[in-house]
Design brief:
The complex is a heterodimer of chains A (297) and B (661).
Chain A: H1 2-15, H2 19-25, E1 33-35, H3 38-46, E2 53-54, H4 57-63, E3 74-75, H5 84-89, E4 94-97, H6 105-109, E5 114-116, H7 126-140, H8 144-165, E6 173-178, E7 183-187, H9 192-199, E8 215-219, E9 230-234, H10 250-253, H11 255-258, E10 262-265, H12 274-296
Parallel strand pairs in A: 1-2, 1-4, 2-3, 4-5, 6-9, 9-10
Antiparallel strand pairs in A: 6-7, 7-8
Helix pairs in contact in A: 1-8, 7-8, 8-12, 9-12
Chain B: H1 7-31, H2 37-42, H3 49-82, H4 95-109, H5 113-138, H6 144-168, H7 173-181, H8 190-214, H9 220-225, H10 230-252, H11 258-268, H12 274-300, H13 309-324, H14 337-341, H15 352-369, E1 370-373, E2 376-379, H16 382-417, H17 429-443, H18 449-473, H19 478-501, H20 507-514, H21 523-539, H22 544-549, H23 554-559, H24 564-586, H25 592-602, H26 608-632, H27 641-659
Helix pairs in contact in B: 1-12, 3-8, 3-10, 3-11, 3-12, 4-5, 4-6, 4-10, 5-6, 5-10, 6-27, 7-19, 8-10, 11-12, 11-13, 12-13, 13-19, 15-16, 15-26, 16-21, 16-24, 16-25, 16-26, 17-18, 17-19, 18-19, 18-24, 21-24, 25-26, 26-27
Classes of the chains: A alpha/beta (297), B mainly alpha (661).
Chain lengths: 297, 661
């Protein structure tokens, strides 16, 4: 594991100076692209490409928001059912989506070539898949050099975060999204967050099955078994979540709640991409180590 | 009163409650040794996870199940008695749907309200809906028909609004579905502390009202003669039932069928007097819910949340009702027929058919020509027209054909069952298709269109086959067929709700289809639908004569030489095919099938032939207009046509019901 990272760091170091040279040759125009998935929207924006259209822009800003979407980008409606007339009017060269849209694909293909990229698959390694997807998209959009820069930076961030956490005693983590007063989504090993924990050398406390998207929905009572864990609650926190109220029930009796090992972390789109993972990896050491210092004092 | 309780009912109620509690004790003793129970119940040791779970999760959950079951049993007993309607329940009257709508609105636009109380929001919603239903049906002297109709229709309306809001705010879907599905999971005593005093208060009120209410079994005239102010009494009793429902649904969500089933069980085991049922139904309800909940916990294990108890009560309650149905005397249809099938008094306006056809043409033309883009409104012509017509013509054609099919199917079903509430969705065919689609999503992460089509058809076919088998066995008693359909719908809905509650991102896709969208329509689908629709639409009017005769009753029909068995079977197959075809194309929200026939009748089309043609034209116009509105109103977002049709149709129907009062 250690050597692998070293190799990656070396690779990153080698690649970085080459970037301007590569970028020089990549002056071909990017194709006009419309994106129907928020994770892929982040991927394309991170490549420095502005799509002609994105689905559900307002909600992207509220829930994902890895990158600002320029105001001239057009909203093409729902992710599941984009407005075909609006889409066709944009005259895209390429429509980028996920296998999730398979059933509307015949319609999309009539407007423009449609490519679907799978990040969340049964093999359960969304971060790896997302990196691969970024390379594939970059190839289709003529932004290979930019992709390598982004990926190298992400690897770099992860390596740095891993270094800053090395040697620290961090408890196994529960990554939770609160749904209401009694239920949480817990993100497992096959989630994007789970992958990042893995790379940072941290342990995901959740050891039970999750779905293809890497999470499972459980009642708060299912958390009693995780005595030594620390819980990271991902924003937004609903107003009736026990975290936000003064409820005196089971939540207050959970070992990690009594010991104060609960921390709220900012919003991350759980079905995001490399950039989401990078931001998560960059912020995590700060969250965890400040936590550590609070409890040491 | 106690002394005269029927022994069979008491024995059954006691047995259900005893088995439920024994099961709970058995399961809990596996979790925590008996000798620790007292300590865990009173002051659990904080280091012992088992004691914590016992104190904060298991015990409150058991208590919540008991309280909710009792409250729903009581509420339904009151509702069914006061409204003299064996189908009355919080679900069928739309009270739960009202509470749910209020909660969804609050979740999206005023989440901070939940800090104050999810409960208050739901109570407000439930009360608003009940007030509306109350107003409508009081204008019509509380006829059971009007009430059930208004309830179902309002329920549908709230449901449609909820779906619309969820579609546009998909990230909230998961939490809304957990609540909607009725999860009994607890993590403190707050629900119990909330419910207990409120339930006791309602029981006290009921006890005070019990004697005067019992008089309601007499006819209105003789009860009035006894000096009971009927209106006030009914209003008070309804209010108590609404409070009970709102308290339960606001704290744990929708627990279907316990309410509907409990008074029936009490009645069938011999509790004929209202006072007896008032005592027994809550006990049966509490026992049943505990029983179901223990089953969920045992089977579901640590993933019991995947299977919300409310969804399971419907899973178990629906077959129970199916089994009980033949023992019920058909009390519903009998008073409906004269009210709705007897022709309206207005005559048919001249030029009605030309007007209807012109309306359809106008809707079709604007559906194809008038549109919006990012730059604003435009009337398509020339090159733009040929560009947009690629998308619009298939959608408009599919909406038109499906609307026409639904209009005719509605006429068939309403005349066949002599029941104005009969409509395609009530028969559960749409839900069968939904289950088929769901199956394709379970089989494959990204199901192809061919697979979706195949599994959808299989689903529709299975439901249809079940309905046919059922009706042949019970000699096609119309009311029972309808109730079978409702029970089946609830059963299948429960499966769907459980799936949606998992928070699977694919839920959004299913939801879009459930809302009734023409989105996926293309040329192939339009031609396919035309091939299915054309022969059906041509054959159906041939049944005009039996359709005119059937509503007159069995004896008259026989005297007039109608072979009841084969005619009914043929009409049923026809209705099912019409429905299945349109549902496959535009989803299970088939409101055009309810509105089309009603509007046709209101316009004076009394004979079956006229009504069929009129309903087809109106259904088609409604769907085409709804499709167009759905594409325009929130451009570039789109609302499914079925949903818009419901949003247009329901207020019309309610207004219509009130006006006729």
């Amino acid at each position: 594991m250690r050597t692998g990272l070293n190799r990656r760091e070396c690779l990153a170091a080698l690649l970085l100076p080459m970037v301007p040279a590569v970028a020089q040759e990549d002056q071909r125009a990017h194709p006009r692209v419309v994106v129907l998935d928020w994770g892929l929207t982040s991927t394309i924006l991170s490549l420095g490409i502005t799509p002609a259209g994105v689905a559900e822009i307002d909600l992207y800003r509220r829930w994902a928001d890895d990158f600002p979407i320029p105001p001239n980008v057009q909203d093409v409606g729902l992710r599941t059912e984009p407005n075909l007339e609006a889409l066709a009017a944009l005259k895209p060269d390429l429509i980028v989506t996920t296998p999730f849209s398979e059933s509307v694909r015949p319609l999309l293909e009539r407007i423009a070539p449609t490519r679907s990229y799978a990040t969340y698959t049964p093999d359960g390694q969304p971060l790896n898949r997302s990196m691969q997807v970024m390379r594939e998209i970059a190839r289709d959009l003529h932004a290979e050099a930019q992709a390598e820069t982004v990926l190298a930076r992400a690897e770099d961030t992860v390596a740095q975060a891993r270094r800053s956490l090395a040697g620290r005693k961090i408890r196994p983590l529960l990554l939770a999204g609160f749904m209401d007063g009694r239920h949480v989504r817990i993100y497992g090993a096959n989630s994007l967050f789970g992958d990042v924990l893995d790379r940072l050398g941290l342990r995901n406390a959740w050891d039970r099955p999750t779905n293809v998207w890497g999470f499972t929905l459980v009642g708060i009572n299912e958390l009693t078994a995780y005595r030594s864990a620390q819980l990271l609650a991902i924003e937004p926190i609903p107003a009736d979540a026990p975290l936000a109220t003064s409820s005196q029930g089971l939540w207050r009796s959970l070992p990690f709640v009594r010991a104060g090992r609960v921390r709220t972390i900012p919003r991350y789109w759980a079905f995001g991409d490399v950039s989401t993972a990078e931001r998560f990896a960059r912020n995590l050491p700060g969250e965890l180590l400040s936590e550590e210092s609070v409890h040491a004092g | 009163m106690q002394a005269s309780l029927p022994s069979r009912s008491v024995a059954l109620a006691g047995a259900i409650a005893a088995v439920g509690l024994a099961w709970a004790v058995m399961r809990l003793s596996g979790q925590l040794p008996l000798n620790l129970w007292a300590q865990a119940a009173l002051s659990p040791a904080l280091q012992d996870a088992r004691q914590l779970l016992f104190h904060y999760a298991s015990l409150p959950r058991l208590a919540t199940a008991l309280l909710c079951g009792a409250a729903l049993g009581l509420a339904s007993t009151i509702l069914q008695h006061v409204l003299r309607n064996p189908l009355a329940s919080p679900t069928t009257l739309g009270i739960e749907a009202g509470a749910q709508l209020a909660l969804v609105i609050a979740t999206i636009w005023a989440p901070s309200l939940f800090g104050v109380g999810r409960e208050l929001v739901a109570v407000a919603g439930a009360l608003t809906v009940t007030a509306l239903i109350f107003a409508v049906s009081s204008a019509r002297g509380f006829s059971p028909l009007t009430l059930t109709l208004t309830g179902l229709v309002t329920s549908l309306f709230c449901g449609s609004l909820v779906v619309t809001l969820k579609l546009l705010n998909q990230e909230y879907i998961s939490s809304l579905f957990i609540w909607g599905a009725g999860s009994l999971a607890q993590q403190d005593w707050s629900t119990v502390v909330y419910l207990l005093p409120r339930l006791l208060f309602c029981i006290l009120l009921t006890a005070l009202l019990a004697q005067p209410l019992a008089v309601l079994t007499l006819s209105d005239q003789s009860a009035s003669a006894l000096g009971v102010s009927l209106r006030l009494l009914r209003a008070l009793a309804l209010f108590v039932a609404v409070l009970l429902t709102a308290f339960v649904t606001s704290s744990v969500g929708v627990i279907g069928f316990i309410g509907l089933a409990t008074p029936q069980i009490a009645r069938l085991t011999g509790a004929r007097r209202f006072q007896d049922r008032l005592v027994l139904a809550p006990v049966i309800g509490a026992g049943l819910l505990v029983l179901v909940d223990q089953a969920v916990l045992t089977v579901g294990g640590s993933f019991a949340d995947f299977l919300p108890t409310g969804a399971v009560t419907a899973l178990l309650g629906a077959p129970l009702l199916l089994w009980l149905l033949p023992q019920l005397k058909p009390a519903v249809g009998s008073d409906l027929a004269p009210d709705f099938i007897v022709p309206a008094t207005t005559g048919r306006p001249a030029f009605l058919f030309p007007l209807l056809i012109a309306g359809l043409l106008a809707a079709t033309a604007s559906g194809i020509l008038l549109g919006r883009s990012a730059q604003g409104w435009f009337v398509a012509h020339g090159e733009i027209l040929s560009a947009v017509s690629e998308w619009r013509i298939p959608r408009v054609s599919v909406a038109l054909l499906a609307g026409a099919m639904l209009g005719m199917a509605g006429v068939l079903l309403q005349r066949l069952t002599r029941n104005p509430i009969a409509s395609p969705e009530v028969l559960g065919i749409g839900t069968g298709v939904a289950i088929g689609l769901l199956a394709s999503m379970v089989i494959s992460t990204a199901p192809s269109r061919g697979m979706q089509l195949a599994t959808s058809f299989a689903g529709a076919f299975l439901v249809l086959a079940f309905l046919l088998w059922r009706s042949v066995r019970s000699r096609i008693a119309p009311d029972q067929l309808l109730l079978t359909g409702i029970a089946l719908s609830a059963f299948l809905d429960a499966i769907i709700v459980s799936f949606l509650a998992l928070g699977d991102p694919r839920a959004a896709q299913l939801l879009a289809w459930l809302a009734g969208s023409t989105y996926r329509a293309d040329g192939t689908m339009a031609w396919m639908l035309l091939a299915i629709a054309a022969p059906l639409l041509l054959v159906t009017p041939l049944f005009a004569r039996p359709l005119d005769i059937l509503p007159l009753g069995e004896e008259t029909s026989r005297e007039l030489g109608v072979d009841l068995g084969s005619t009914r079977l043929a009409i049923m197959v026809l209705a099912a095919l019409l429905t299945a075809g349109s549902v496959l194309a535009i989803g299970p929200l088939t409101f055009a099938g309810l509105v089309g026939p009603h509007l046709a009748r209101a316009l004076g089309l009394r004979r079956a032939f006229e009504q069929l043609i009129g309903a087809a034209l109106i259904g088609a116009t409604l769907m085409v207009a709804a499709d167009w509105l759905g594409r325009m109103v929130i451009f570039p977002f789109q609302l499914p046509a079925g949903l818009v049709a419901a949003l247009i149709g329901v207020p019309y129907l309610i207004w219509h019901l009130m006006r006729r009062g």
